[in-house]
Design brief:
single chain, 175 residues, mainly beta, three-stranded antiparallel β-sheet, 2 helices, 6% helix, 40% strand
Length: 175
């Protein structure tokens, strides 16, 4: 397998094409969306991966998306700060080094915790062909503003129009 090319953009490095690569979080281009924190996904656009992995910085009250369940397994490790996971309609606080194992078909969403510091998550999951995501109505998630009003299998219906913006790395801080 060849090495993938890392291309410099205005906001940092991005992988281009298939292949292996080494990329420091500080050098990577990240993405952000209103009320959804800032994240980096390790992979190249248009290149299918068996496993998705990345880091997500969640300021207090912001979430990784909307309450949902999917056919893929995921895992979430808190690297810094704390967050709230709403899982199967229950709230659980996760702190640094806590790990949330999320089997397929587990309803969940991650929300940045209280306080001044953001939560930093390492997230990963498999990408099974044909696995569907269902966005669910849930009263606990709704209290946090992260529930749809009508259930749907379509992200476009759940989120409406979304704008993703590339930004420089917000984490980890310079030592």
């Amino acid at each position: 397998m060849r090495e993938a090319k890392l291309v410099q953009t205005d906001t940092g490095l991005v992988a281009e094409g298939e292949g292996w690569f080494v990329l420091n979080l500080r050098d990577a281009s990240w993405q952000t969306m209103e009320r959804s924190g800032t994240w980096v996904s390790f992979g190249a656009d248009g290149v299918p991966n068996q496993i998705g992995a990345g880091a997500h910085v969640l300021p207090p009250g912001e979430s990784t998306g909307l309450y949902h369940r999917e056919g893929n397994q995921e895992g979430f490790l808190v690297l810094e700060g704390e967050c709230l996971v709403v899982v199967e309609g229950e709230e659980r606080v996760l702190r640094q080094w806590d790990y949330f194992h999320c089997p397929p078909q587990t309803a969940h969403i991650m929300i940045g915790g209280s306080g001044q510091q953001p939560c930093v998550l390492f997230m990963f999951g498999n990408h099974l062909p044909g696995a569907k995501t269902e966005y669910l109505v849930d009263p606990v998630a709704a209290r946090h503003g992260v529930s749809v009003s009508e259930p749907t299998y379509f992200a476009s219906e759940a989120y409406g129009e979304r704008t993703f913006t590339s930004v420089p790395s917000p984490w980890p801080p310079e030592a």
